[in-house]
Write a structure and sequence with these properties.
There is one protein chain. 31% of the residues lie in helices and 29% in strands. By secondary structure, it is of the alpha+beta class. It has four domains: 87 residues, Rossmann fold (3-Layer(aba) Sandwich); 71 residues, 2-Layer Sandwich (Dna Ligase, domain 1); 119 residues, D-amino Acid Aminotransferase, Chain A, domain 1 (2-Layer Sandwich), CATH 3.30.470; 77 residues, Glycinamide Ribonucleotide Synthetase, Chain A, domain 4 (Alpha-Beta Complex). A hairpin with a 2-residue loop joins strand 10 and strand 11. The relative contact order is 0.13. The chain binds adenosine monophosphate (AMP) and glycine. The site of glycine has 6 residues, from loops.
Length: 412
């Protein structure tokens, strides 16, 4: 079986690495790390006809669309129309991620537990609503409705910061079209986890649970990022909680988007033991995937092939291990950062895998090329051992200004 994985990040490197244990894999455009493990090709992901031509040229049996943008643009529809079995929903299903306003309406219609919210395009109305929520004793989360690369959410415990966020999005249009509509949602206080569910025309199967740390600094302080590190399993998430989440959050929304083939990512906040949906994504999580694939045994390639064909899902072997992935980021991230800084990688302990994200080759040397540069992923019999191994490996991966959290896999 031959897979074409579309994307250039750590998620796609991890998917390609895992799939290559059981299948032939081409990644496009990939990155220097992925190129060490599998074949790579260049392609512009936003160009559906270029993607189709590539899928034909490499004779892909299954195409896996990694990032949300091509899914939102309808690339999965175009691939399926041309006969390619594809992992990733069409434009209709991708609305769950393309528009938070639409997703919240869909959640309400489907009865999915989620924070009370309203959507706005006018600053004055949004500000009135936020003020009324604070008067009733709630904090709020202000969310750009469109996809904004993890930068579109401000969680506010003060009215003043909510007003600033609304002004940045609706008045100054700092996030462009993505922030032209906002969702103002009650702030929930609880513990978060991520559930990645493979979906094949209504049948579904969840992968091992992971927890992401989205804040930049240790102890969940500092600004939100795309994700600074993940671990799996998550001991406080019981099988029963996963089952409740599937019953209340996954199944009802899938009934609202028939024909969904791909991955549904549910971002959950557990409040008093109950899962509330913060968001859906229509793709694998990044950096959740980098930890989750390390806990899968045989059967992942077969399962993704079944997803792509809308066929019954075969089981995937689960490994009895623990995985921790620590993201190494450029100085300045999630704000502006410099690219092109040389990276040196020394010998890595056994069981450690480097998943590349924002890296490039410049005159044969590995350099930084993005905010999140690399994910250092380790496995071990316990989370503590996996974390210790990941952090020991970080000593061997150096670039000027590198920043990373020191508590991934060590706090819950
Ligand atoms: P989202 O992109 O909607 O998952 O939001 C990004 C992050 O913001 C989440 O992982 C949470 O940490 C936080 N967040 C989102 N919505 C809320 C909410 N209603 N209450 C508290 N925190 C939230
Ligand atoms: N790690 C969060 C995301 O993939 O959106």
């Amino acid at each position: 079986m031959r897979f074409l994985v579309l994307g250039a990040g750590g998620r796609e490197h991890a998917l390609a690495w895992k799939l290559a244990q059981e299948a032939e894999v081409v990644v496009a455009p990939g990155n220097p790390g992925a190129a060490e493990d599998v074949e790579t090709e260049t392609v512009a992901l936003g160009d559906a006809s270029a993607v189709l031509a590539l899928a034909k040229r490499v004779a892909a049996d299954v195409v896996v669309v990694g990032p949300e943008d091509p899914l939102i643009a309808g690339v999965a529809d175009a691939l399926r129309e041309s006969g390619f079995a594809t992992v990733g929903p069409g434009k209709e299903g991708a609305r769950l991620e393309a528009s938070k306003a639409w997703a919240k309406e869909a959640m309400a219609r489907a009865g999915v537990p989620t924070a009370a919210s309203r959507a706005f395009v006018q600053f004055a109305a949004a500000a009135d609503y936020a003020r009324s929520r604070f008067n009733e004793g709630h904090g709020v989360a202000v969310k750009a409705s469109g996809a904004a690369l993890g930068k579109g959410v401000a969680v506010c415990s003060e009215l003043e910061s909510a007003m600033e966020a609304l002004e940045r999005m609706l008045v100054h249009r700092e996030l462009g079209e993505a922030g032209a509509e906002v969702v103002v949602e009650d702030r929930l206080v609880g513990q978060e986890f991520s559930l990645l569910t493979l979906v094949s025309d209504g049948r579904f199967f969840s992968l091992p649970v992971a927890q992401d740390h989205k804040r930049l600094l240790d102890g969940d302080e500092g600004p939100n990022t795309g994700g600074m590190g993940t671990f799996s399993p998550v001991d406080w998430v019981s099988e029963e909680l996963v089952q409740t989440t599937e019953d209340q959050v996954v199944a009802p929304i899938l009934a609202a988007v028939p024909g969904y083939r791909g991955v549904l990512f549910s971002g959950l906040m557990v409040v008093d033991g109950r899962p509330f949906c913060l968001e859906y994504n229509v793709r694998f999580g990044d950096p959740e995937t980098q930890s989750v694939v390390r806990r899968l045994g045989a059967g992942f390639a077969e399962a993704l092939s079944a997803v792509a064909q809308g066929a019954p899902l075969p089981p995937i072997e689960a490994l009895d291990n623990c995985a921790v992935t620590v993201v190494m980021a450029s100085a300045g991230y999630p704000g502006p950062y410099t690219k092109g800084i040389p990276i040196t990688v020394g010998p890595l302990p056994e069981g450690v895998k480097l998943f590349h994200a924002g890296t490039a080759l410049h005159e044969g040397c590995l350099v930084t090329a993005g905010g999140r540069v690399l994910g250092v992923s380790a496995t071990g019999p316990t989370l503590e051992e996996a974390a210790d191994k990941a952090y020991a490996a970080i000593g061997s991966v150096r670039f000027e200004g590198r920043q990373y959290r020191t508590d991934i896999g060590r706090t819950r």
